[in-house]
Each structure stands twice: as structure tokens, then as C-alpha cells.
């Protein structure tokens, strides 16, 4: 491919991502309008796992600022490559092993999947002193699925209290991955339980303002139940690579 052809391909990809991001924002606007919410109250988190840094740079040029990564090494490589992009915010949204906490504490801005005090303590200890506190969401296993990570509803308050004592972390709210294939009624019940837990947490901590809930398939329902951050991947970047 010549330089000219490569430039044309990059321009085409940026236009494609621009249209996709605008489409997702339109979906957010529609869902918010249906329940009387301001669309600015919902943050779009572009899930960029398995996608190249060039895609993230193109999405950034299209106005996207928040990006979610599931794999530590892949995420760190992209963060390093794109360190020149001012105002970009990196969210770690996958499961995290204890031996990988330093990389997340050092490179990411947000951590969505805290479910154990040990992980929170390690992130606190390893967060550089010259960086802003790491923004923390507690992952909730809202449907009590054996195959999923996350705390139960009854475990939110004690873990939140413990995280609040760690000054290099800032507790921002809750994250959940709803049960796949649930009926609309089951989904509404799960989302209501999570929304209630979020409101209780807000009453206890002034820093709590984020409910990370909803993907492409359940965006409208999540927004109806108070989600302030939706995690969208395929609808922006296309099918993921294996």
C-alpha cells in the first residue's frame, strides 16, 4: 500500500468511526428523551479491546475521549502509544489478577471491576503519588451468577467503606454485567435492584456519581434505570478480532 493509499484508508476509517459514534450518541439521546433525562448525563465508553491504536486515535479525532480495555498488557501498550492525546481517559473494565495491579494502578484512570479488598489495597499502594487518585467502581454480580465476578448487594456497603479509607483511590460508583438472555421482566428487576443500591451508595458518599451499566443490546433499559455510563464496542468499532 502506498503512502497515499494508506492516508486514504485512514481517512475512510475515521469517517466510518465518526458515523458510528454519532449513531450511538443518537441512540443515547433517544433513550434519554424517552425517560426525561439529559443526554449529557450519560457518558459513552468506547470498548476498544482487540482494536488497534490507530482505531482509537481515529475515534479520538472524532471526539471520543473515554476508552475501555479488558486486557492489561494490550491496554498498557495502547496507552503508551497514544500518550500524546490530551484529555484521553482509560478505563480498565476486565477481571484483574493480583500480579497485574501495578500496571493498572500506573497507567489507567479508571478501574471498573473491583470486587475484593485485596485488589483495592494493591491498587492504592501502587498508584503513583504524582497521579490523581484512581477512579474506582465496585463490580456487582447483580444476578448472582456463579460464572460471573462481582460482589453481592449485601457486600457493597462494607467494601465501599474500606475503599473510602484508601486515599489514592476515589470511589465513584458501581458496575454490573447483566445476565445474558434474561427476559425483559427479569432484566428490569435486576436493573432496579442495582439502581437502588447505587442510590444508597450516593447517599453515603459524595464522590459517587457513576453507574456503569448497559451495552448495545440493553442501552435503553440501562438508561431508563439510571445508568450514567454505557459500554459500547461493536457498534463503534465493528466485530472484535479473536
Automatic annotation (TrEMBL):
PROSITE patterns: UPF0001. It holds the Pfam family Ala_racemase_N. Its cofactor is pyridoxal 5'-phosphate. Residues 42-240 form the Alanine racemase N-terminal domain. CDD domains: PLPDE_III_Yggs_like. SUPFAM superfamilies: PLP-binding barrel (SSF51419). It comes from the Bacteria. The keyword Cytoplasm does not apply. The modification N6-(pyridoxal phosphate)lysine is found at residue 49. Keywords: Pyridoxal phosphate. InterPro entries: Ala_racemase_N, PLP-binding_barrel, PyrdxlP_homeostasis. GO terms for molecular function: pyridoxal phosphate binding. Belongs to the pyridoxal phosphate-binding protein YggS/PROSC family. Pyridoxal 5'-phosphate (PLP)-binding protein, which is involved in PLP homeostasis. NCBIfam families: YggS family pyridoxal phosphate-dependent enzyme. PANTHER family: PROLINE SYNTHETASE CO-TRANSCRIBED BACTERIAL HOMOLOG PROTEIN, PYRIDOXAL PHOSPHATE HOMEOSTASIS PROTEIN. This is Pyridoxal phosphate homeostasis protein. It comes from Aliidiomarina maris.
Amino acid at each position: 500500500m502506498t503512502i497515499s493509499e494508506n492516508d486514504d484508508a485512514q481517512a475512510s476509517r475515521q469517517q466510518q468511526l465518526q458515523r458510528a459514534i454519532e449513531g450511538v450518541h443518537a441512540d443515547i439521546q433517544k433513550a434519554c428523551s424517552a425517560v426525561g433525562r439529559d443526554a449529557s448525563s450519560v457518558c459513552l465508553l468506547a470498548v476498544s479491546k482487540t482494536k488497534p491504536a490507530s482505531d482509537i486515535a481515529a475515534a479520538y479525532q472524532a471526539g471520543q475521549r473515554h476508552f475501555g480495555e479488558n486486557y492489561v498488557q494490550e491496554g498498557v501498550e495502547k496507552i503508551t502509544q497514544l500518550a500524546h492525546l490530551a484529555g484521553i481517559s482509560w478505563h480498565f473494565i476486565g477481571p484483574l489478577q493480583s500480579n497485574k495491579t501495578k500496571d493498572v494502578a500506573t497507567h489507567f484512570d479508571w478501574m471498573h471491576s473491583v470486587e475484593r479488598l485485596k485488589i483495592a489495597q494493591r491498587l492504592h499502594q501502587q498508584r503513583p503519588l504524582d497521579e490523581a487518585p484512581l477512579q474506582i467502581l465496585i463490580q456487582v454480580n447483580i444476578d448472582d451468577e456463579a460464572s460471573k465476578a462481582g460482589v453481592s448487594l449485601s457486600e457493597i456497603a462494607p467494601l465501599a467503606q474500606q475503599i473510602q479509607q484508601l486515599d489514592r483511590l476515589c470511589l465513584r460508583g458501581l458496575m454490573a454485567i447483566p445476565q445474558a438472555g434474561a427476559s425483559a421482566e427479569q432484566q428490569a428487576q435486576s436493573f432496579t435492584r442495582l439502581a437502588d443500591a447505587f442510590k444508597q451508595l450516593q447517599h453515603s458518599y459524595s464522590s459517587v456519581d457513576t453507574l456503569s451499566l448497559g451495552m448495545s443490546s440493553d442501552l435503553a433499559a440501562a438508561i431508563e434505570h439510571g445508568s450514567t455510563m454505557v459500554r459500547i464496542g461493536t457498534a463503534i468499532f465493528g466485530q472484535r478480532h479473536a
